[in-house]
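At this stage, I put together one protein's amino acid sequence and its backbone structure tokens, which the following lines show:
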Amino acid sequence: MYVYDDYDHKIINERVAQFRSQTERYLEGKLKEEEFLPLRLQNGLYVQRLAPMLRIAVPYGMLNSTQLRKLAHITRVYDKGYCHVTTRQNIQLNWPALEQVPDILAELAEVEMHAVQSSGNCIRNVTSDQFAGVAKDEVVDPRPYCEIVRQWSTFHPEFAFLPRKFKIAVSGTEEDRAAIYFHDIGLQLIKNEKGDIGFKVIVGGGLGRTPIIGSVVRDFLPEKDVLTYLEAILRVYNLNGRRDNKYKARIKILVKSMGVEAFAAAVEAQWEHVRDTQTRLTDKEISRAKSFFTEPAYDTIDEQQSLALLQAEAENNKAFARWLKQNVQDHRVDGYRSVTLSLKPVGIPPGDVSDKQLEAIADLADRYSFGEVRSTHEQNVVLADVKVSDLYDLWAALKQAGFATANIGTLTDMICCPGGDYCSLANAKSIPVAEELQREFDDLDYLYDLGDIDLNISGCMNACGHHHIGHIGILGVDKRGDEFYQVQLGGSQRYDAKLAKVLGPSFSRSEVSSVIRKIVETYVAQRIEGESFLSCYERIGIGAFKEQVYVKAS
């Protein structure tokens, strides 16, 4: 992973000192609320329903064990002993005291972490595939390019005050695990027929009040041109994006209003001015970025011998066998696997992790995975490089730490925003709905029979829980002061990107679990052998589900 140089340390420490002074002046009444607002946002600090919320940047989800232990210390000393993994692979603290935030940032700087640009109208944390660099279906490792974009965009003076927040995701695999069609810019790493590395460039995707699937504006952009092309896109947006209405300020609205052809033409015209400037990448710069993502010291392992041992262990333990199937992913190196630690046990808000669990993850990372972990946009944690021969011992340790719930990819591996329990924007609570669904569908054998189902919950139209792109989406809505929930079906966050459709009138919280049960039962009754939920939905249409949920319930 990237390691700070002297300049990085100097810049981050200077930012901490700067924000400490700004916070002190605000608390002394020397800065007005409206003056402090952009300053705190630039340092990841929101004012939420009950307390400030600090969003800590985790570039493309990579953390080391030292950073995890520091996060554990921070949650214990400055918060309530837990933190939250977000859909941008970041870490959030929900209860920091404003006057202690500079101290938190100073502690983060000690381990090469910060909260810079994790909020505000700037380029946010660059996200990627949690299996980057180890995925068996990977075409190109996206991490060096994520790091190049991160370094270019952080503190970029021209893009510090964009019309609205700006999000970039990079994927380098055959399967999209970074939801690139739902970002302001999505970059898919590909190789052309000559074997040259480049990007498919997707612009104007996003969720929120106006969900839109991004449009391809370049089928193949050579790797050296990625920054100049991003600069051209950002310039067109910065010049033409609306600033009079925050709900119409995202780049997706600009692309839609201009039309994708006109927008792409404007970008190409702008690119002519910048494509041969010093921002164009050199072989030396690309090699420098790649040097931070070299292979760890993998052992040479006989794959077949390892598998034979693993199979014997699985045959003797059903729980271990189903965990292997659900939570363990293939690895490109023989004798290794990637393991997803589920942060979705029954009774725990999805994505929450305690200080002691953070320390447990750090210990396990040191012991089993070269001291590194990845956070995922689906609110879990990954140990990327685990020997097959260590899987049984790791599983036993994960059971003790509370991370061995074998539900990855199932209906209870849901994405869920903090909702009305914390967020001042939310119309309804999300966490209690998630917990009720976890209890309703706690039979793992039944979940496995259902197969992969993405269920996403948002507490409001801002869609932090990505409800638009769940196979089943749940949206909290306000009806004359009461919390209700709208159900949507048919979304997909993969390369076959789809937006879900609204099933019909919304439901009270007490009805949600039974409604989801009826939807699942409809799928079970209608599916043909081997058919996924999404395929079944597309074949039979939303009407079949609507009839079961509304007509037969009346």
